[in-house]
Amino acid sequence: MVHSNRMKNLLFVLFLFLSSAAFAQYKFMFLNRNPDKMVLPDSIVEKHQKYHMDNMGKLAKEGFLLVAGPFYTGGGIFIFDPSKGDLYQKLQADSAIINNRFVLEILDYKPIEGGLCPVGEEAKMVTYQFARFFPFSGSQVMNSPAISDQELTKLKNELDLVTYASFGEREGGMLIYNREEKSDLISNLSSVNGFKYRAEEKKLYIAEGSFCEQ
After folding, report:
1. CB atoms within 10 A of CB 89
2. Which of 59, 114, 118, 140 is most enclosed, with most CB atoms within 10 A?
3. Contacts of 179 (CB under 8 A, 6+ apart)
4. Residue 134 is part of which domain span?
5. Residue 5 lies in a domain
6. d(CA 96, CA 103)
């Protein structure tokens, strides 16, 4: 019986490891504005920003940075391919990041609808509506996605859906659709009305085709 239990535990741990490895194919980073950042002369801020953009351009050419775009309100999103190198090490070359100009959130990323298609520097830049789903503290969301299959079908039919992705169990997810304004469909999702998730929307400026949308 003891041997059997140990074997079950080992198989369970192996299952979790393989599931995590399969899930964490990509890494998603929110670059959030740091309200406590040091006040610096404009010339220094501009240098940090230049080094930040230069480093991101370098990572994109290496195939490490797949998708990037700023929010209209500041900050932005980045999606990386961690098989191309160590994310934390590569971020140490970013002057704006190591000098705490931003607050970072790094999450696993799994596309559910749409994909990832690096498009190059000449791509057209477009404005999309970006919705992030935050699990409410204490809510049971492990087996409760932010968007059900039925609701996802409705969103695909009624919104110009670009992509929908998960950040993993208990971490929520994100959705992008091609609209200039917010949609009531997002605020009326059953998971939002049922207080399992909180939806926060922003305008995102990003290269068209980044999520393999037509």
Report:
1. 8
2. 59
3. 128, 129, 159, 160
4. 24-207
5. no
6. 10
Tens-place pLDDT, residues 160-182: 999 999 998 788 999 999 998 99
Q: Could you report the per-residue pLDDT of 136-153, keeping only the tens digit for each?
A: 876 666 567 899 999 999
Q: Whats the size of the chain, residue-wise?
A: 214
Q: Is residue 7 part of a domain?
A: no
Alpha helices in the chain (DSSP H): 2-23, 42-61, 87-91, 95-98, 149-158, 184-187, 190-193
Give the side-chain half-sphere CA count within 13 A for 209.
Answer: 9
Q: Residue 118's domain is classified under what CATH number?
A: 3.30.70.1060
DSSP secondary structure code for residue 193 in this structure: H
Residue 177 · residue 159 · CB < 8 Å: yes
Residue type, 198: R
Both tokens of residue 11? 């198989």
160 alpha-carbon distance from chain centroid: 19
Amino acid at 95: S
Give, in degrees to the nearest 5, the angle at Cα 81 between 52 and 136.
Answer: 85
Domains held by the chain: number:
1
Q: Which two tokens stand for residue 79?
A: 């999606």
